[in-house]
Amino acid sequence: MKRVGLFVCHCGLNIARTVDIKDIVEKTSKRSDIVFAADHKYLCSEPGQALIKDSIRQHKLDAIVVAACSPAMHEATFKTIAQLSGLNKYNCEIANIREQSSWVHDDPQKATEKAHIIVSEAIEKVKLNEPLQPITVPVTRKVLIIGGGIAGIRASLDVANAGYQVYLVEKSGSIGGRMAQLSETFPTLDCAICILGPLMVEVYRHPNIKLLRLSQVEEVRGYIGNFKVKVRQEPEYVDVAKCNACGECAKVCPADVPNEFDFGLTWRKAIYTPFAQAVPPAYVLDAKNCLGLLPQACGECKKACDQLGTACMNLDAWPQTHELEVGAIIVATGYELYDATKLTEYGYGTCPDVMTSIEFERMLSASGPTLGEIRRPSDGRVPREIVFIQCAGQREPETALPYCSKICCMYTARHAMMFREKVPEGQAYVFYMDIRAGGKGYEEFVKRCQEERGLLYLRGRVAKVYEENGKLIVKGVDTISGKRVQINADLVVLAVGMIPSAGSKELASTLKASLDANGFFSEAHPKLRPLESPTAGIYLAGAGQAPKDIPETVAQASGAAAKALDLLSSPTLEREPTVAQVLETCSGCGICIPLCPYEALTLNANTNQAEVSEALCEGCGTCVASCPSSSLSLRNLTDQQILAMIEAIVA
Amino acid sequence: MEKTFEPKIVGFLCKWCSYAGADLAGTSRMKYPPNLNAMRVNCSGRIDPSFVLRALASGADGVLIAGCHPGDCHYTNGNVKTLRRFRLLQRMLDQFGIERERVRLEWISASEGERYARVVRGMTEEIRSLGPLNWKTTMEVAA
Fold first, then answer.
1. Both A455 and A381 in a single domain?
2. pTM for the predicted model, two decimal places
3. I want to staple A105 with a disulfide (CB 3.0 to 4.6 A). Which of A111, A294, A309, A520 is the partner?
């Protein structure tokens, strides 16, 4: 029989406040199957780990149970210390008495009783654990990066500069993402495209980066170190290598389409360049708005292109599927904005002079619809009175978004300041709830905008915006003076919140990476593993994980790249050996074979028994549960172990 | 005063979604009754329906199986197989004369700590009102 030791952690008072540690140690040490039991204030600390190590040696333990926090937290820590003390690490089990007992129950007696059961479950399991050796598999030393915004660009460059191959998959016709649409960035007022453009070009020219535009990830199979990915690329009617972006094709195109880059404030043709600095520097044919390709209705663009001799167009192009093999995946899918038409009280969608912040951003841009001049969309006049409404549809758990998008206080100050610069005689009002300007130089920036530009900040919410005699009537409250306020404005700008990009949910399903309650990609641990998804080998960068600004996005992208490089730095990788195993009693009925999602099970024609490929098996155990003769087993989660744990619970 | 009946519930939680959801309930310090004891399994697809029957036969008053939402399974579709087995198990429970409410299959994601707490609260109350199953003692009497 195994010599099992128990170590109980106080976790300061986190566990000890509700669970009677002394009682756990005393009663458990009386069990016939326990050789040694001890407790420590912080088992994860160096002295705590030393206690485990010394006790394993002193009491010749060959299995340990650590009753502490969730295995998601410190299982790796304690398994490592077990291994360092001469145990096989699979002879270490965690009893989670913090997240599943002390933190969720108030009654100390009941919490202690439950902790006893949790400990007992772990003891029963560890007694039946077998020592295992990790399975070694090769690592494909390439990275897939999904999303070509600033996060994807930064991560691609970092991985590629380290010497590894990158596939950068971008949904639209050009990389650049949201940042390419911005006019200036806070707090330094750098021109966004001026600092982004060179990076985009660097991506395009980098020998280690393969850029796939008009592409989306369709299927992901495999596991960390060995993903097999299918990427679907929409038909490339324009040969990116040949196109010199002369624009003759667009000149003859008869189809006018609202330009999504300017949020419909300008028009483009069905064949177009997404924006002046687009990368790859090639035109895109928008098949949806083209007069017709099958059968061909017009074909003027191709004629113009052929006449010039460039001949880069092929109107018979088909979608392509790229099959890629990569070791790591970085998700950098970014954000879009909350649909402002849902905020009916602010009149967006019905009053043309109510805009969202990103539409205003386009208007401020020197390459935007008004070439940087601020104009009312309704009549083209320069507005005199402008109202900015912060937290529009944000921090409203009942009706809209429950969270804060973090960047709006900053860009609103910048917007109001730019307005005053461009319209010196104008007046800017900002309705705010509170100013959140945490960040290097941020508070100073907001103060400077307010003081130097004479912005009027009103603390309170706006109740209603409506049109009357060509003016927008903004009715709100100033909670500092306690008075109701009415402003007759020419233009209203809504700071709407950031939401995850469309398609995040589908992508999360494809990747088997989880999303949080607001639809952003979940990180493995909010404090300690913010760059990783809970699914091994998938890393996160940018606003697809949570609202964040450009410096934070860039920092996270470089961090995610470093994580991926860490994985690629070794040619092999260790995999969990807790896989399925076929027992001698297998009769070869084959029920299990089609159930395996990884095709890890095959029927051996010679022995007429099922066989498990350990390199493919992920250890889910679905096959094990299906076997009518109990001839399949999951290593270290066998039927016997589960039944023993059931007994421990109901005893 | 008569002591209120405290049901014993066995919970099988998949480690990717539901166990992480239960952990989130803990980290968020949500409170729920201590009647359910969880077991961390790789996938809800690991759960052989006979485990459920064994738990009930050994003295449990209820069983919870919790996995990822359909489409979100870490192992592609283990939870779908669980659902199929669960439907058959329900018919078997009917034949045993065991109330269906005693065995639940729930989809709880890693972000749904609140939902986990609610499920445990709801199940505890529901089974409390059904009363003890007493399968073990009934069998002993019959034998």
1. yes
2. 0.84
3. A111
